[in-house]
Amino acid sequence: METEKQFAEIASIIGDRCRSTMLWHLLDGRALTATELSILADVSAQSASNHLSLLVRSDLLVVERQGRHRYFRFANDEVAHVVESMASLVNATPSAGKKISEPVGIKYARTCYDHLAGKLAVDLADSLRQKGVLRMSDRQLLLTREGRKWFHSRGINIQELENRKRILTRACLDWTERKFHLAGGLGAALLQYMLKEDWIRRKRNTREILVTSVGKREIESQFRISVMP
Predict the structure, then answer these.
(1) Which positions ≥6 away from 193 have C-beta within 8 Å?
(2) Are residues 65 and 99 in the same domain?
C-alpha cells in the first residue's frame, strides 16, 4: 500500500497542468530559470516558485545557482524518460480514416532530453540494428561486440560511458513514431557526435533538429536511409 500511495503522489505532482508544462519544456535538455518557466507555464512568479519547489522536493528536478539566477533541470535522465514516454499516450490510436501526414519539424527530428528523437532517430536505430551494431532483446536495445567497434571507430569511448552512473543503452518509445529510438548514455553520445560533425544543428528556442547538407549526405551514405530535405 505504501508503494501505491507514493505512486499516486508522484502521479498527481506530474499531472498538474502547470508542472507538466514545465517538465515538457525541460525536455530540450537546457536548464531554465524560474522566470523562463513561469512564462512558459503562463503563471505568476510566485506560483512558479511554489511549483518548482515541489518538483525539487520530489526529486524530479534539481536547482543550481549561478549568480543571482537559479537554473532548474531534470534530476536525472530517468525523469526525462518518464516525461517523454507519457507523451506516447497522446493520440495513441489514430482516428479511423484519418490521414497520417509526413512527419515534419519536431516530429521528424528533435532532442529528447540529451538524445535524438523523431522519425530520423527511429530510422537510425533501425539501421544500426540491421548493421548488427545494436540488437533488440525483450524490448531493449543492446550494444553488440561489432557495435563497440563501430562506435569506437567514430571516437566514442564505450568504456568511459559504461563507467558513468547511467544506463548505456535504452529503447525509448518515440511518441510520434510509436517505434523505438536509441536513448541512454550511448544515445546521448551519438547526438553529440552528430552535432560535432555538423550533420545536424539545433534550431534556436525549440527542440527541433535540422539536418545539414553534409549530414544528409553522410547519413544517407553511412546508414542507407532517406533523409528529408
Answers:
(1) 154, 155, 156
(2) no
Lookup result for grid cell 518518464: 82
How is residue 198 annotated by DSSP?
T
Query: What is the overall mean pLDDT for the chain?
Result: 90
Number of domains in the chain: 2
Q: How confident is the model at residue 165 (pLDDT cuts 50, 70, 90)?
A: confident
**Positive or negative: CA dihedral 88, 199, 184, 139:** positive
Looking at residues 25-46, what average pLDDT do you find?
Answer: 91
Final residue belonging to a domain, choices 31, 50, 75: 75
Calpha distance 81→92 (Å, rounded): 18
Q: How far apart are CA 149 and CA 186, in angstroms?
A: 13
- Residue 228 within a domain: no
> Which residue type, as a one-letter code, is found at position 34?
A
As a dihedral over the C-alpha atoms of residue 92, residue 97, residue 100, residue 101, rounded to 10 degrees, the angle is: -140
Amino acid 92: pLDDT = 54
- Look up the pTM and report it: 0.79
Angle between helices 17-25 and 45-57 (to 10 degrees): 80
Integer-rounded Cα radius of gyration of the chain? 19
**Calpha distance 182→174 (Å, rounded):** 9
Q: Hey, what amino acid is at 93?
A: T
